[in-house]
Amino acid sequence: MPKVSAPQGRRIWHPELRSSGGPVYRAIADALEADIAAGRLGSGARLPSQRALARALGVNLTTVTRAMREAERRGLVIGSKGSGTFVASRLDQVPDWPDPFRRQAPAGFVDLSLNYPPDVAEADLADALAEWAGGLARRPQECRSLLPYRATQGSAADRAAAASWLEEGGLAADPGRIVICSGAQHGLGLSLAALAHPGAKVLCEALAYPGLRAVAATAGLKLLPVPMDSGGLRPAALRDAIRQHAPAGLVCNPTLHNPTGVVTSLARRQELARMLRRAGLWVIEDDIYGALTDAPPRSFAALLPERTVYLTSLSKTVAPGLRIGYLVAPDAAVLDGLLGAARASSWMTAPILAAIASSWIREGLAQRAVRQVRAELARRQRVVSQTLPSGLRSHPGGDVRSPHLWVPLADASTEARAVALLNQRGVGVTAGEAFRVGATRSYGFRIGLGAARSVDVLTGALVTIADALERGEARRGRMVM
Ligand SMILES: Cc1ncc(COP(=O)(O)O)c(C=O)c1O
Predict the structure, then answer these.
(1) Residue 402 Cβ contacting ligand 1 at under 6 Å
(2) Are strands 77-80 and 84-87 parallel, antiparallel or unpaired?
(3) Which atom of ligand 1 is nearest to the CA of 209?
(4) How much is the average pLDDT of 238-264?
(5) Does residue 183 have its Cβ closer than 6 Å to ligand 1?
(6) Residue 418: exposed, middle, or buried by beta-carbon count in 10 A (0-12, 13-18, 19+)?
(7) Which of 66-80, 143-157, 300-314, 446-460 has the lowest mean pLDDT?
(8) C-alpha dihedral over 91, 94, 98, 102, to 10 degrees?
(9) Cα 41 from Cα 30, distance rounded (Å)
(10) What pLDDT is attached to residue 28?
(11) Are strands 11-12 and 308-313 parallel, antiparallel or unpaired?
(12) How far is the CA of 185 from the centre of ligand 1 (A)?
C-alpha cells in the first residue's frame, strides 16, 4: 500500500487500486475493505478528505464521493459531518473481554475473577423486592405509570431519588442535570457518545476496567494509557500525554480504582483537575465504587464541575441485576448529547427498575445494603491482611473496603503462569492482560474479594494464592503501573 504525504506532512491512506474492469469507485471501496480486513487500517482511523483522496488518486471528486457512499453502505466507514470520515468499528476488533459466565467451572472452583459485591444484602433485598412487587396490587395507578414510554432522562421522582443518593455520597447534583441510565457500562457508552466523535483520542488509566476498552472499541475511539503510581494517575504523565497526543478528554476511576483499589488523594485530584482545566479537556468520572468508602475525597465533578460527566451505578453497592446507574451532566449541551445517545441506544431505562431503585433509596434499604457490603468488605480485607504477604495487605493507595486487590507481578510470562497455576489449583483470578491499555507494561492479577460465597471460602482461596506467591511460583513485581 504506497502512501503519499498529506499537505501538512502526515502520511495518509492511499489505496492500491486493482483494475477489475468494474467502475473505479467500486475499486476504491474494495481497496478500503481489503486494507481494513488486513489490519492496515484500524477502527477509528481517519481517512483523508475526499478532495485530497481524489487528488492523490488522480480521479474526480464525484468518484471518491460515490466510493465513500459505497463504503458506508458496506458498513466500512462512518461519516461525521464536519469532522471527517472514519473507519467504522468492527465487532471482531473489540478486545476479548473475559466472560466468566461462559466458563464451566468444576465443582469446588472458587472464581475470584468475578467482580461481584458480596451477597450479604441479597436476602433482605429479595424480601423487599417481593414486598414491593406484592404491594403493586394495591397501587394500580403506579402499575399503569410503569408501562408507557417516558422521558429519556427518567421521571422527576427517580431523578430526585438519584440526587438524594448522590448527595449522601457527598455530591450535590441538580436533578435537572441527572440522567437515569441502565448501569455504569451503559453510562460510559452514553458519555463517550456525547463527548467524543469516532477517531477521537481519549486518555484513561494505564490499567482500566475492561468494559471501557470494549465500549471505546465499538465507538471507534483511540484509548491512550496514562501511567499510574500507587497514588493513581501520575500528574507528570498526564501533562506529557496531553502535550503529546492533544486528546479530547479523560476517563478515570479515581475512587477504589478497578483493578488496583487505589483512592486518589484530594491533593492529587486538585493537581490533575488544574491540568485538565488548563488544557480544556472533558472528564468522565466513573465513580461506581465511591459509596463503598467512608469519606471519599472530593470528586472531579466537584473540582471541575464545568467539564465533568459524573457517573455511578448501584451495581457494586446494592444489586447489579437492577441495571440502574446515574449520570450527571455538567451543562445543558452535554445533557442534550447524553439524551440523544440514550435515545439511540435504548430510548429510556426501564421505568420499573428505576422505580424499585428509587423506592429502596427513599426507604433507606439501599443505604442499609451499602453498609452491609462495606462491613463485609472490611472483614474480607482483614482476611487479606492475615493471609497474603505484607506488601499486598496494605498496598499504598489501597483502601480497606476495596472490593478488589491487585497483585503486581514481574512480567507477562509470570502473569500468565501465575493465573494458569491458580486456575489449576481451583482459584480463578483475572490476568492483568484484561486491564492493560495500549502498550502498558504492568503485570499482575486482580483478586475479586466479593465473589466468594463466604469468608471461609475466601480464606481458603487466599491461602492458595499466598502459597503460590511465597514459593516464588509467581515472582512479585513493584506496585508501579
Ligand atoms: C470501573 C467500572 N466501571 C463500570 C462498570 C460497569 O458497571 P455496571 O454493572 O453498573 O454496568 C464496572 C463493573 O465492573 C467497573 O468496574
Answers:
(1) no
(2) antiparallel
(3) 1
(4) 96
(5) yes
(6) buried
(7) 66-80
(8) 0
(9) 13
(10) 93
(11) unpaired
(12) 6
102 residue type, one letter: R
Q: How far apart are CA 421 and CA 94, in angstroms?
A: 27
For ligand 1, is residue 47 a contact (CB within 6 Å)? no
Looking at residue 390, what is its pLDDT? 74
Residue, of 81 and 223, whose pLDDT is higher? 223
Contact 377, 256 (CB under 8 A): no
What is the Cα–Cα distance from 138 to 140, expressed in whole angstroms? 6
Mean pLDDT of the region 321-337: 97
Question: Measured from the CB, is residue 115 less than 6 Å from ligand 1?
Answer: yes
Give pLDDT, residue 94: 61
| Three-class SS of 395-431 | CCCCCCCCCEEEEEECCHHHHHHHHHHHHHCCEECEE
Whether the upstream peptide bond of residue 330 has omega within 30° of 0, thus cis, is no
How much distance in Å is there from the Cα of 449 to the middle of ligand 1?
15
Length of the chain: 481
Answer whether 211 contacts ligand 1 (Cβ < 6 A): yes
Cα 13 to ligand 1 centroid, rounded to whole Å: 37
Residue 96: predicted pLDDT: 64
Q: Is 259 in the pocket of ligand 1 (CB under 6 A)?
A: no
Ligand 1 atom closest to Cα of 257?
1
Instruction: Decide whether any atom of ligand 1 lies within 6 Å of the 288 Cβ.
Output: yes
- pTM (2 d.p.): 0.83
Percent above pLDDT 70 for the chain: 89
Residue 160 reports pLDDT greater than 80: yes
Give the mean model confidence (pLDDT) for residues 237-246: 97
pLDDT of 87 reads 79
* List of long-range contacts for 336-339, beta carbons under 8 Å, 24+ apart: 337/193, 337/194, 337/195, 338/179, 338/190, 338/191, 338/194, 338/309, 339/152, 339/153, 339/179
Residue nearest to atom 7 of ligand 1 (CA): 184
Question: What is the reported pLDDT for 76?
Answer: 82
Is there an atom of ligand 1 within 6 Å of 313 CB?
yes
